[in-house]
Amino acid sequence: MRKKTLIGSSLIVFILFQVFILPIQARGNNNPNKILGSPAFVLNILGKKDDWNPNGDFNNPERHTIFVPENGDTRIWITQAPRKSLEDFAVLDGNGFDEDGAALQLGDGYFAVYVVALGKPGGAGSTLGGVITDSDGNDLFYLGKVDAKVLKPHGKQPVWEEYTNLFYITYNEIVEYFEGLGYSTEDAEGNATAVIEFFKNLEGADFIPDLDGDPNTYDPAIWIFDFFDFLVEVLMTDDGQYAWELKNKGIKHLQVRFYFVKSRYWDYFPETI
Q: What SS3 state is found at 112?
């Protein structure tokens, strides 16, 4: 297969990066609906006893629930509907009890993501993290984890946190990614700069000039599925896979709300007249 390169090097691309996740506070509001309007999609991750015997159809895309062990580890594989498809969210596999885990398709667009654990206080030590694998599903790197304090039910007063950062790859992580392929730091930085500049000048893409908000660091970022598309459509190589890994220690109800921010209606190489 013919591959395109950024700075003259032949790339066999697998995803390899680490993101340090800093939770963005819910802007002084425990109910993000008041800020962002109605959610585009609400996902309920329901913990069941380890001996629970699931029945029924778990591949109904219109469902809003995924069942996971109340105590144990589960992978939720996340993909996204193609750009400009206008496809909606879909639970592709709601059974997190089997070996292949559960599966969720994000709708077409960019979204803000909020997480809360509901129910009686408990579940201390539970974590939710992003993980990147290669195209064969082999783990390459973890993006980070939602703070365990967030993933602990707080009784009558839910504590929402925004974790949209889990869906972005930064300049520094792109550098680490190329270094993981064996490139020198100089070449890795050159490649990362080329990727960032590409998206910075790409009209319609969700480019973030400074993800961590620190003026003393260089932290631009792009949507992770834009990066995956870039690997396939620009470099003409394999993309990676993305999953959430839930290590549950007693949570019975974890809710994730996705709020539409803007569309992904753009092309890497716009047609010119």
A: strand
Helix (H, G, I), strand (E, B) or coil at 162: strand
3-class secondary structure, 69: strand
Q: 256 Cβ partners below 8 Å, 6+ apart?
A: 42, 43, 45, 113, 114, 115
Other Cβ atoms within 10 Å of 59 Cβ, number: 12
Name residue 170's beta-bridge partners.
221
Cβ atoms of 267 and 111 closer than 8 Å: no
pTM reported for the whole predicted model: 0.82
Question: Domains of the chain: which residue ranges?
Answer: 24-168+240-261, 170-233
**What is the band of 260 on the pLDDT scale with cuts at 50, 70, 90?**
very high
Among 82, 78, 53, CA closest to 267: 82
Please answer whether residues 41 and 258 qualify as being in contact, where contact means their C-beta atoms are separated by less than 8 angstroms.
yes
